[in-house]
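Review session, final week

We close the course with one last complete record, chosen because it touches almost every idea we covered. It is Catalase core domain-containing protein, a protein from Aspergillus chevalieri with 353 residues. Go through it on your own first, then we will talk.
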Amino acid sequence: MNRSHKRHPQTHLPDPNMFWDFHVGNPEGFHELLHLFSDRGTPATLRHINAYSGHTYKFTTTDGCFKYVKIHIKPTQGVQNLTKEESVRIAGENPDFLIQDMFEAIERGDYPTWKVYVQVMGPEQAENYRWNIFDMTKVWPHQDFPLRQIGKLTLNRNPNNYFTDIEQAAFSPSNMVPGVAPSADPMLQARLFAYPDAARYRLGTNYQQLPTNAAKAPVYCPFQRDGSMNFSGNYGADPNYVCSSLKPAKFYQDIKGVGPKTLNVMTEHERWVGEVINFTTHVTDEDFVQPAALWEVIKKEPGHEERFFGNVAVHLSKVKSDRLRHEVYAYFSRISPDLGEGVKEATEGLVVS
């Protein structure tokens, strides 16, 4: 999806033809398009926007038990969005508005805060749930799995130097602390590798030694050493492997008293997981149930429905193929007939004009 949203290889311009061609070929992603082209797609500031893990993770205990979780981060300042007209004006007047707003708020001591919530699901619930919990295009309805607050996030310091603190930062879902683990979500599994690989390409093989990325807790990993721009002690004379009698090391499970049985993942549930993630689903009416529910929420706000039609039309009307545009209308209609008709009417009006 990210590649289809990138610039065209020849023109280096944003390309609506690639964009909509991808989504017609992967219509389960229309759920996200309702977010993107609604007011939610143009947040008023970075201080007034929700954040989500998207992926399913695990919260684990030392005895080997775990629960599946999805993480939600909600601003205590509330959610505020812009209309298309407001966002276009601000982008033209001050393209750096979002950065400036965040920096100045922190600088004056108006620290933005977010409450952190999780939805929690047991493995046995996952096996019998209506939707595949490893599918990023699906959410867990709150009536089934209510939000439970676990913490609060506060941004209370600006970077001392933008390059060293921000440009060199390397985020990855593989950066985890004990008690958090990845699920079998295929996209998450790919990102566990891809993000560090991109960081090595962008920042260098020892990017984890940079102050903005360095671990705050002690890390002993003597087989990860050497490489260009290594400014650590490089583990001195320690052997470049673990389990050495010359340099004995204690492992996490030994310190925590975790037995071998708790580390064994070959359970009946894991066998179920393997079957689920190896099955490539095909698009059915189930893929349009959750987008339909979101569309009903959007329609409750006065004027939001028309703004959605207008936002889609400005973009979709640039698609040259009549066939492709009408396939888009058909998929919007599978979400709701009035949605498909509204998008079609607004878009074709711009095409004709």
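Two points worth writing down before the exam:
The chain has a mean pLDDT of 92.
The CA atoms of residues 65 and 126 lie 14 Å apart.
Good luck, everyone.
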